[in-house]
Specification:
The structure holds 2 protein chains of 2 kinds.
Chain A: H1 2-9, H2 11-16, H3 18-50, H4 55-70, H5 73-92, H6 100-126, H7 129-137, H8 142-172, H9 184-195, H10 198-230
Helix pairs in contact in A: 3-4, 3-6, 3-9, 4-6, 5-6, 6-8, 7-8, 8-10, 9-10
Chain B: H1 2-9, H2 13-47, H3 52-64, H4 67-76, H5 78-82, H6 88-114, H7 117-125, H8 130-160, H9 172-183, H10 186-218
Helix pairs in contact in B: 2-3, 2-6, 2-8, 2-9, 3-6, 4-6, 6-8, 7-8, 8-10, 9-10
Classes of the chains: A mainly alpha, B mainly alpha.
Chain lengths: ~230, ~230
């Protein structure tokens, strides 16, 4: 029984494929970087529009954020991977194939922007009104006030929370294997199909992700504590 | 567009409804199991100090592992290691429950710890037993504190439940992807599916958040309407 278990759990198998798995991890990190940037950019736009005076634009941006939050990531991923290419193809009368990396970036970026925009908005609201008013009294223009006075303070306040959201985005990047981005889980499923040994590989992957995420959260927690004490 | 609609969507409505039913079952089973497991983990963490590390490790593991990784892990590894679950439907809701129970344990723990010490001490002073104190004094107040987070967690479960299609559980998305592969016409049906999910999650979150706000107001947890 114990022998059997050891055979089933053979960690050598997981470690033996480390080159492939690390190559996969690089794709996870790549998607994390691209979709994280996209999410930040989109969130900034949503946040600015939601704080504007023009009510219909406010509703539109709010609706977009709500839609991004309430659509399951996997459905958004599949939708973006399949629907827009067909529509573009119909419009241009050619065949367009979606690049999995682009689809992954768009889907995860949009879906994350639903949450990040909310965080940014909370950050912007938390900046005392007096700062913007003082800047206005000094003759700064509204755009400059937002860029130079409000946004830096908002980002500084929200940095720990943004890092936490980056961690959940990293967890979300495991989905991209489903549209054939060769990330960790894609490699794991390929290898385990080839070796006919699902146990060590999937267990190894679960433990590896757990380790990465726990370490990252711990670092963020320590960082946030210092950040609050030193910078804020 | 209309022609595709008539050809692809309408004839498959029964299939979609079937899938929707499976999705609903998975969500309900997963969420209820998550509530139970999360509750047990939170109680163990607070009231059984010798086993505290076990509860902490459990909820940390559940929260740190991505849901997709957990899902394939439960579906492909558990049957070989533990001989259970025997079918993918069970694996699906078990994985959803596993993931959520970590978050729920953490939420419930903060909720229970947020109940003022004095309330518990007052109950003891009145001669209530520990079990009764927990049931009648601590948990009702903790529940009021965590109600909004539990609502959020339910929405997360509904959203994550789409992933069970990956392990061939015939939920809504599984049926839809089958239809997409059959006709090679993704536009109408995928958009419809996305809209179905939005049409389920948005009102659900509004409704339940409204309900939890009402309950919190009714039982004096918050003094004004939120």
């Amino acid at each position: 029984m114990l022998d059997n278990l050891q055979d089933l759990l053979d960690p050598q198998l997981f470690w033996g494929y480390r080159a492939l798995l690390f190559a996969g991890l690089r794709f996870n990190l790549l998607v994390l970087a691209t979709s994280g940037l996209l999410s930040l950019l989109l969130s900034l736009i949503i946040c600015v529009i939601r704080l504007s005076r023009f009510a219909p634009a406010r509703w539109l941006a709010g609706g977009f954020a709500e839609l991004a939050r309430n659509t399951p990531e996997y459905i958004l991923l599949v939708w973006i991977h399949f629907v827009p290419p067909v529509l573009i193809g119909l419009a241009l009368h050619t065949r367009v194939a979606a690049d999995p990396l682009v689809s992954a970036t768009l889907a995860l970026g949009i879906s994350s922007s639903g949450y990040v925009s909310e965080t940014l908005r909370a950050g912007v609201i938390s900046v005392p009104r007096g700062h913007a008013e003082a800047a206005l009294a000094l003759g700064l223009r509204p755009g400059t006030i937002f860029r130079r006075i409000v946004l830096p303070q908002a980002l500084r306040r929200m940095l720990p929370e943004l890092l936490n959201q980056a961690i959940s985005l990293f967890k979300g990047t495991t989905l991209v294997s489903l549209i054939a981005v060769p990330d960790v889980m894609y490699q794991v499923s390929m290898i385990s199909a080839q070796e006919m040994q699902p146990v060590p590989l999937y267990t190894g992957a679960a433990l590896a992700f757990c380790l990465i995420v726990v370490t990252a959260s711990l670092l963020v927690r320590i960082f946030a504590e210092r950040w609050r004490r030193v910078v804020l | 567009m209309i022609e595709n609609w008539n050809r692809i969507v309408w004839p498959n409505v029964p299939l979609l409804l079937q899938g929707l039913l499976v999705s609903a079952e998975i969500c309900v089973l997963g969420f209820v199991a998550a509530l139970i497991a999360g509750f047990v983990a939170a109680l163990v963490r607070i009231y059984l100090p010798p086993l505290r590390w076990l509860a902490v490790g459990y909820s940390e593991f559940c929260r740190a592992t991505p849901i997709f990784v957990q899902l394939v892990w439960v579906a492909y590894v558990w049957p070989e290691l533990f001989g259970w679950p025997r079918d993918f439907f069970t694996a699906g809701w078990v994985a959803l429950a596993l993931q959520s129970s970590g978050y729920i344990a953490e939420t419930l723990r903060t909720g229970i710890e947020a109940v003022a010490r004095g309330h518990r001490e007052a109950a003891y002073a009145l001669g209530m037993r520990p079990g009764a104190t927990l049931r009648r004094i601590v948990l009702p107040q903790a529940f009021l504190t965590v109600a909004p987070s539990l609502v959020n967690q339910l929405i997360v479960v509904v959203k994550s439940s789409t992933l069970v299609s990956v392990i061939a559980v015939p939920d809504l998305l599984y049926q839809v992807l089958g239809i997409v592969n059959k006709y090679y016409e993704p536009i109408e049906i995928l958009t419809l599916t996305a809209l179905i999910y939005v049409a389920v999650t948005t009102p659900l979150s509004l409704l339940l958040n409204g309900l939890s706000a009402r309950i919190r107001y009714r039982y004096g947890y918050v003094s004004g309407r939120e």
